[in-house]
Amino acid sequence: KAGVTQTPRYLIKTRGQQVTLSCSPISGHRSVSWYQQTPGQGLQFLFEYFSETQRNKGNFPGRFSGRQFSNSRSEMNVSTLELGDSALYLCASTAVGGSPGELFFGEGSRLTVL
Amino acid sequence: AQSVAQPEDQVNVAEGNPLTVKCTYSVSGNPYLFWYVQYPNRGLQFLLKYITGDNLVKGSYGFEAEFNKSQTSFHLKKPSALVSDSALYFCAGGGTDQTGANNLFFGTGTRLTVIP
Q: Are strands B19-21 and B10-14 parallel, antiparallel or unpaired?
């Protein structure tokens, strides 16, 4: 069974640009969560989608948004990029009826903002 | 606010010796607690969880964790460390109806180095 796939793995953007990151969950998983990992702030929850609806949202500005498609694939978008948005963005999926908090993570998309 | 804390940024242990990675929690109600591991340039991997029941939880790769309510701790342990255990370890809380099933709050991480 394929794991969680995130694309692109690495990308470089400049301030003011926008970026879209993609996440394909494990087959059969319908919940997708996004986390930001930085050296300064650590791991922080961004949002969670389930059945194309945002179920939970972390404390991030509105520049951070996401969506989920009918096939459970998810995208997150960051507009008007700032230097502080440089981070590893991790996507995680969980199975329907799976144990709460037991997440399957992808390898992440490393965003560098110049 | 609910949180978990990992008091040690770095833990070094000799191969074959027992290891402990510490975590304390501040969670209202019944805590859901987790340990995840991150290898270089990789995502996180689930190790084990405590939701309810036995205070000693067994997980993947020979790891276990002890839930101690009186000390509000959830330390990760392994009887005999391997060089391959060297990685970044995260304690996490959450996963409840109150926080959101998959809304975890993580500690700052502890880098474990097992010395051959």
A: unpaired
